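hey so i finally got around to running both of the ones u sent me last week. sorry it took forever, my laptop kept dying halfway thru and i had to restart like 3 times lol. anyway pasting them below in the order u listed, first the sequence line then the structure token line for each. didnt double check formatting much so if smth looks off just lmk and ill redo it

first one:
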Amino acid sequence: MNYIKTLLFILFVGQISAQEKQSILLLNGYLHVGNGEVIESGLVGIRNGKIDLVRNSLAYTFNKEDWDTIIDLQGQHIYPAFVAPNSTLGLTEIDAIRATRDFDEVGQYNPHIRSQIAFNVESKVNSTVRTNGVMLAQATPRGGGISGTSSIMALDGWNWEDATISQDDGIHLNWPASASESGSIEDANSSKRKENYLKQKQAIYQFFELSKRYASLSEKDQNDVRLNAMIACFKGTKRVYIHANELQQLVDVIDFSIRFDLPFPVIIGGYDSHLVTKKLIDAKIPVMLVRTHSLPQNEEDAVDFPYHLPAILQNAGVKFCLQNAGDKETANARNLPFQAGTAMAYGLTEEQAIRSISLSTCEIVGIDNEYGSIQEGKSATLFVSKGNALDMRSNQVNVALIRGIFISTNNFQQELYEKYKKKYNK
């Protein structure tokens, strides 16, 4: 009964959008640290929004008076918050209504467009995603050659400032479609496609040449808002996310990254990345992998090839994480844990699958010193699921914290379900 009362207390507190940070002790949970480690009877202590203690419950004696809240999890699973990279979460509400879409600006090169200030913390979609353990997102603009600059956001907060985890983490470059991407290279239009590809690639090189020279100017001579947004890309405080899938694109992206000596290039998509694993490792370029739940892009590929791709990169030693860009990506971000579950069924271990949507993502976007794993000193951003969070049959989040503050594990869809269940059960 005490356990049930504690959970009811948490659910009540979770309805409040902000509260005082408490000292919280979670014990007797099956702890997935996020870095590959597991503690079968884990204990996690939280103070001032930080993880203060990670121990084995069976080998640690604690004083109840030292903690404001103590929750006996009775074997439930503890996970670090899952992260949705390359996502339009918070930037759109209803895809069919233009007024609710705030992720695509006019213009070809828009590195100065910032998603952070457009992020909507009141989005109802966010609450449905949190229900499955996805609690952080990389709010990412779309369209054009350079879409803009993304930011890492918490899916709860008072406003976009309060929700910001990492401001302006990187720009997003959409690599042009290669000559062979839309069909056989021998067909009648291949020469024209090749010409267009080379022309677009040359334009990208010219823009980056201009940006790099501009970055070398003194501060008093830097007065171009677009080029100002590019400076950090060459100084290593901003990543360059390059969206590319096909083999020719990937080879050219690797050469491009080396040519401009980019400190932190990242490939988003990388469908053919298994063909250039050695090049990716040598160039130290990680991959935000194409959606696992997708159809093969090449005629000769097996229908389940996308399911195998994470394990192929894992075995090759390429740093990667999973992302969900594609049709209806905002609402379907809730399925990110189940994409990791599919990758687990096709070659990854359970802890590798968990890492691919937690710590690996945080390492790639540069927030791993605070997020991505349940370790002492890191932010207390984590959740508890009654069953395995990678399995849609057992994922049932009932405790969630962002930066040490309890958040609601409910959403409007669940509320509607309960409402009509009462009506029709009569």
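and the second one:
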Amino acid sequence: MYKYSKYNSMIKMLILLHDSYQFVMQYIGPEEFLSLSENIPVIDVRSPLEFSEGHIPGALNLPLFDDNERKKVGTLYKQSGRQSAILAGLDFVGLKMSQYVKQASKLAPERKVLIHCWRGGMRSAGMAWLLKTADFNVSILEGGYKAYRTYIRQKLGEGIILVVLGGNTGSGKSEILDRLEGMGEQIIDLEKIAHHKGSAFGDLGQERQPTNEQFENNLFKALNKLDITKTVWIEDESRGIGTVGIPDVFYRQIRNSVVVFLDVPKSFRVKRLVEEYAAFDPQQLENAIHRITKKLGRQNAKLAIEALHRKDFDTVADLLLIYYDKAYLKGLSYRDENKVFKLVVESEDLEIVAQNVLEFYQKQKKLTN
């Protein structure tokens, strides 16, 4: 049994308060919590490691326990029970209470906060009690981060009107999405959310990728801003984008949606790839080629590396497209051919291409209705 510390009397009070929190604290569900989070700071009281693995976008980490403290409290809970774990927890927390209030005051100067932990249990309730004592207006996420994750997975599986922008590597799909957004269309840029462009070269020039869990959280945030009763444009992607994977329920929607396939001349694509990648460190480019040697073929990989060394970037791109075109067209062949509409691209001006894409889709939509 954990020995009572100098905070013994306070512990007893906290335990009694916790058992009556449902009558004092305001618990709200994920939908309301996320709606309020647009204007009220979210404080995540989980440990730094928990937070780094995945968190509600925009949440601020004010951990009740550090990683080691959390581990010790969890072990004690399993070995000696709830009260012993609470007593140990307060020993960790006791001297830091004033710091929590000071930090919360900086994070939420208007003294309104939304709080959550993993399951909406003692950690969030304890911090909520402390901040309420300091005259904060506090709401707790019922069920905690776990409930949030369940909620967003359900939402990602709900129907959405997707139009998939397809095309071989180098077609400029991401840039066209940006231009469609500039024209007032709704888009989801999976590669931007994933911090990766989806190929062996996709991490070049990108920020560190989020965890898979955080990718899903960020994807939901992007979707949650859109009107799902209207068309949403999205780039055709493989299930995996670098180290992260598109959630199954959302990937199925992508695979079952209408595709506008951009038939772009290879010369245009080679030029675009050279403009995008030739400035990177040659060693990074060579490393990426080595990663796909088996798929590209040893001879083609050898020729591509030799061309890279002599700075013949057009030849490098042309050789790499042998593999990437074959791989993309194979994936396209698994789609319902009645949902794939090919648009022949004749201009290198992506503004013109984006306008053509929109007009083409609207025309096809009328024909199929």
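quick thing i noticed on the 2nd:
The chain is about 55% helix and 10% strand.
anyway thats it, ttyl
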